[in-house]
Give the backbone structure.
Amino acid sequence: MISQVIVTFTLIFAAQSVIATEPPPSESAKTETNLSSILKSTLQQNGMIKEAEQDIEIARSQIELARAALFPRANATILAAPMFEVRGDTNSFTTNTKKWGPLLIGSLQITEPLYSFGMIPSYQKAAEGQMEAKSELARAKRNEVTLMAKEFYYGYLMARDLESLVDDLISFLEEAVKTADDSSGEKKSKNPVKPHDLYKLKTVLADLQQKKLYAQSAKKTAEKALAWVAGASVENLENLDSGVEVYEKKSLEDYLETAKKNRPEFKAISAGLRARTALRDAKDAQSYPVIFVGGMITKAWSPVADKQMSIFANDPFNGIQGGLGLGVRFDLEFARQSAEVHEQQAEIMKLQATETYALPGIELQVKKAFWELEQAAQGLEIAENRKKLSKKWFVSNAMGFSIGITPAKDLMESLEGSGNARKNYIETVYGLNMALARLSQAVGTEITQLKYQ
């Protein structure tokens, strides 16, 4: 009786193992669109990315502000006030405080800068460089958040697959424990289960039940984290396929060259240096005058005052004045100007210092990610081999146990070995996908066939 039950369990478990050892699905069968749609949602909805993109808008407004300095500056003033009656001319006048009326005065001033000794163009170059730097930093944030989304996605798949594995093992052990309990009281059993073996079966079963709780908790956490980073609810995650993303293998030199062309930090530092240099020049040019052409006009009107007809008379109540001329404006705060130039020079030296360690650091990051990818790819081959061997080991011991030549201890060891091999395979697939994700982030562009940009 025990032999027949064990053989049945063996066939069930072997079938499950065969399914687990099937090769990864082909590119057409892979659910790249599911991950791609999640990544698209992340790029569109994630708050951290939107925050970084607003820095671009701030920099764009700085460009508009710098360009506005090239256009004429104008201001208009309109004043309305009550006044008492005033009659007469430049020789004699009378006032009547019992009679009041309105006084309206309007003025318009316009100035157009002609030459600023490079100050205005330098401000414009600084704003443009800042815009480029912020754009690249926003792209770096997108790459960073994309890596985070991939980590949650692959973490969910791993937790789900581990939960499924534990369910398989628990199902097998529950039937085994039940059968062992039934056979322990049969004195004439062909292959009775010893009490200490039964205790071991039950202990391993309890351990697996606890591990299932951990897997369920990890899966729920990963699901919520994925919805958080994507900025939208995610559905039908149970139907996602596990497997390694499709990618083209390249040399380390190719990835380093790709990083130099695409890594946004390279461009951000370069743009930042240009911006700070231009801003320093703009601050330095503040010591020089600004040459401008300007004009102004003022018109006053009041019905309770006589208009003066002489051009030599100053008529503040009904007169009109204006003119056009060339002017020079000086900023005499030389101490402040010197401090601002020194501040920008320090910012330039700070960026140069960042460049000395950041750029080699990026190269090191690419190399590390590449070596991790190589290790994970080789580890996947070993994991697949190990899973096949452990299945054969278990099937062999199960068959031997069924005919009474293999002790229960050996059967349990092979079951544990097969379970660990399948667990190792799931974790290796996760490690390989994460190695691809980290290398994509390190080189600044997607290296797999995922389409989400």
